[in-house]
Amino acid sequence: MSEQNTSPEKGYLDMDLLRFTTAGSVDDGKSTLIGRLLYDSKAIFEDQLEAIQKTSIQRGDENLNLALLTDGLRAEREQGITIDVAYRYFATPRRKFIIADTPGHIQYTRNMVTGASTANLAIVLIDARKGVIEQTCRHSFIANLLRIQHVVIGVNKMDLVDWSEERFLEIKEEFTKFASRLGAIVDVTFIPMSALKGDNVVDKSENMPWYQGPALLYHLETVYIGSDENHVSARFPVQWVIRPHSDEHHDFRGYAGRVAGGVFKPGDDVVVQPSGFNAKIKAIHTMGGELEEVFAPLSATITLDREIDISRGDMIVKANNPPTVGQDIEAMICWFSEKPLKGQGKYILRHSTKETKAIIRDIKYKVDINTLHKIEDDLEFRLNDIGRISLRVAAPLSYDSYKVNRTSGSFILVDPFTNETVGAAMII
Amino acid sequence: MPDYTVSHLRQLESEAIYILRETAAQFERPVLLFSGGKDSIVMTHLARKAFWPAKIPFPLLHVDTGHNFPETIVYRDNLVEEMGANLIVGSVQEAIDDGRVVEEKGPNASRNFIQIQTLLDALEKGQYDAALGGGRRDEEKARAKERFFSHRDEFGQWDPKNQRPELWNIFNGRMSPGENFRVFPLSNWTEMDVWQYMKFENIALPSLYFAHKRDIVVRNGTILAVSEFVQPREGETVENRMIRFRTMGDATITGAVESNASTMDMVIEEVAAARETERGNRADDKRSESAMEDRKKQGYF
After folding, report:
1. Are residues A182 and A165 in the same domain?
2. Contacts of A4 in chain B (CB under 8 A)
3. Which residues of B touch A295 (CB under 8 A)?
4. Residue in B136, B137, B138, B145 to test binding to A, most A beta-carbons within 10 Å
5. B18 and A421: CB-CB below 8 Å?
6. Would the CB atoms of B165 and A295 count as touching at under 8 Å?
7. Which of A158-167, A418-427, B14-23, B223-232 has the lowest mean pLDDT?
8. A vs B: CB pairs below 8 A
9. Residues B139, B221 share a domain
């Protein structure tokens, strides 16, 4: 768990991790793009390739159908569609990558939201012939809502518009105009490419000498994500209390958790929320030895200088910059269930390691995610709907705005009868 | 500005520890599935880290097909003693003897399918509500869509179309009586990550994972170690080759690869250059395109 264990060796120990999401529909070349990234980085093995070659021929597909690599479920292969979020992995000497590959059609909004929730970067594909369309709008809206800080606009199928710089610039302008209504995306990179021909995916295109920027893979390898985590507001949600009851560690009482923001050091003044008790950090423990500091997203065990009643669901924070503690919450929510969200409905709410009950107070509006218009005349929340609600929880929560902290700013709602996860929300 | 970059191995480790602690916290009676394979060895290591200095708060469960490499059992027993862990063994042989399952017949019979019943029996007997497994999403395409917290109905079945969405790091382990969960803390790891992590953490492995000379037969393109369970058939010749194993399972179906990789570094190099998946040598996955999905629906890991 400790960075101190890091050996001085170079190579894979220095690699970091980039999680990105791709959303796309059947024809926009998303599967081809992922297939190419995986294949060119040797993440596809011969036996997998053989298996999909066999299946492609059986199905009568004209080309090798790379979508078969990601569409793992029988139903998906039968219907030729991606239903669920598929996670794919590849690595280059610089980075390890986790792709959350999601379907792009509006009926799978919840899957896109799920895939986006853990991503640092989103790839939005635009068909160069079509330009910015409804789907571009939808995918960008979701990336923005989930606070993905880095977006790559892949202007794909450039081969079908004669590798035209003019067309590329036109689309760039069109998107920039539209994105000004979104706000949060920090970093947008436009890359003209042809996933099918391989231009600007792994290697720089020879067909577009006018493009001076990087190929997609180089950008993915080098985009700076070091400042994505919040290292200012210290948050440590307590997951589990460690009491060994052994002779050696007789009085040990450690609070185990994963840092959700900020930096903790021995000697720091902390407050335990929601009780409000103060203490100092005595030590930060791992099996490999004590640490001088710990920060997101590392897991550790903290001991304090005095005995306070702390249990799972509490949050250890720093006194100088505490989260809000309260019971009335406003949030943007995406609805995941066939059963509509009920006004005044009661649900179980899970927020970091805490579970409590919640009642819906008000549905403010829904968003038409194709046009970004507010809908205020039809407030029934159905599957895949996104909008703003207010709710009240049974026990006080320590929370932040989702803008500030993804972990302390998000929660899910669970149906108390079916135990299904029915909604995912971002606190305003 | 200090550098707060965290290497991919530390991120994966932290995530797995987080999942292990969530499992302990959200379930009444979790259990850790221990097969003796490298993934379950890494899982056990992570579990020790997650709860240190306390002992791990759940037992280990080994579903024993009876077709073991002796090295696996020696390793298992040493590890259990060192950790002071509680080990439970679910025996496929006993299930056969009791008539609870019927062994497959035919030359390519395997105990893989009846292993499922033994697992489900052991889970039911121990009233375990969450079973931690070392499954990874990169292993097989049906696994690419598996959740960290994978819900199973009262028959132990997996319904791929009806999985709970998992967002951020919030995991929903709520369930009705009789249902249970499979939990996969290594979901985001690849085979390479597992090897790198073992090197990073100096984790000792059974000798089978490193190149050694062994008597083998080649059956349907798979290299099988000759043992009391695998005897040469007519037309097959026993050869002595340098081999190692990439996965550890039932000795009758686990294929070896030819290799000279006798150290961790050499194995990592070999994995990096490999052009076949590690399960590419598992006869059980080759039965059909959906073999893994079908077994998972039945209750397999």
Report:
1. yes
2. none
3. 4
4. B145
5. no
6. no
7. B223-232
8. 202
9. no
Same domain, A304 and A328: no
Q: Does B111 share its domain with B175?
A: yes
Last residue of a domain, one of A197, A222, A247: A222
CA of A87: which chain B residue's CA is closest? B144
Residues in B closer than 8 angstroms to A298, CB to CB, are 6, 10, 14
Contact A423, A333 (CB under 8 A): yes
User: Looking at beta carbons, which residues of chain A come within 8 Å of B198?
Assistant: none
Nearest-Cα distance to chain B for A269, in Å, is: 21
Contacts of A365 (CB under 8 A, 6+ apart): A374, A375, A376, A379, A387, A388
Q: Distance between CA atoms of B233 and B217, rounded to whole angstroms?
A: 9
Residue A365: Cβ within 10 Å count:
14
Sign of CA dihedral A173, A174, A175, A176: positive
**Angle at B19 (CA atoms; ends A37, B126), nearest 5 degrees:** 125
**Four-residue CA torsion sign, B267, A66, B285, B227:** negative
- Taking residues A189-194, report their average pLDDT: 95
Q: Is residue A78 part of a domain?
A: yes
Output the six-digit token pair for A33.
Answer: 């793009």
Counting every residue written for chain B, the total comes to 301
Cα–Cα distances (Å) from A218 to A16, A191, A224, B212, in that order, read 14, 11, 12, 40
Distances (CA, A) of B245 to A100, A157, B67, B277, B281: 31, 44, 15, 12, 10
For residue A68, what pLDDT is reported? 66
Tokens 């294929």 -> residue = B255
Domain range for B255: 206-281
Q: Is residue A227 part of a domain?
A: no
DSSP string covering A314-357, please? -EEEETTSPPEEEEEEEEEEEE--SSPBPTT-EEEEEETTEEEE
Nearest residue on chain B to A293, alpha-carbon basis: B4
ipTM: 0.90
Query: pLDDT tens per residue, chain B (301 residues)?
Result: 577 888 999 999 999 999 999 999 999 999 999 988 899 999 999 999 999 999 999 999 998 888 888 888 899 999 999 988 999 998 777 777 777 777 777 766 667 677 788 888 888 889 999 999 998 988 876 777 789 999 988 777 787 777 889 999 999 999 988 889 999 999 999 988 999 999 999 998 888 899 999 888 888 888 888 888 888 888 888 889 998 988 777 777 788 888 899 998 888 888 877 655 555 555 555 545 455 556 556 555 5
Q: What angle do CA A149, A403, A98 make, to 5 degrees?
A: 40
Q: Are A88 and A117 in contact (CB under 8 A)?
A: no
pLDDT at A69 over 70: no
Domain boundary among A318, A346, A365: A318
Name which of A262, A366, A387 is nearest A319 in CA terms. Answer: A262
Phi-psi region of A284 (alpha: psi -120 to 50; beta: other; left: phi over 0): beta
Note whether B9 contacts A13, CB cutoff 8 Å. Answer: yes
B239 vs A74, which has greater pLDDT? Answer: B239
Distance from CA of B21 to the nearest CA of A (A): 7
Q: How far apart are CA B253 and CA A413, in angstroms?
A: 44
> How many whole angstroms separate alpha carbon B182 and alpha carbon A245?
29
Asked if residue A354 has pLDDT above 90, the reply is yes
Distance of CA B217 to the CA centre of its chain: 24
Domain that holds residue A312: 235-318
Do the Cβ atoms of A89 and B190 come within 8 Å?
Answer: yes
As a whole number of angstroms, the distance between CA A100 and CA A119 comes to: 8
User: Which CATH number fits the domain that encloses residue B21?
Assistant: 3.40.50.620
Nearest-Cα distance to chain A for B222, in Å, is 13
Name every chain A residue with its beta carbon within 8 A of the beta carbon of B280.
Answer: 45-47
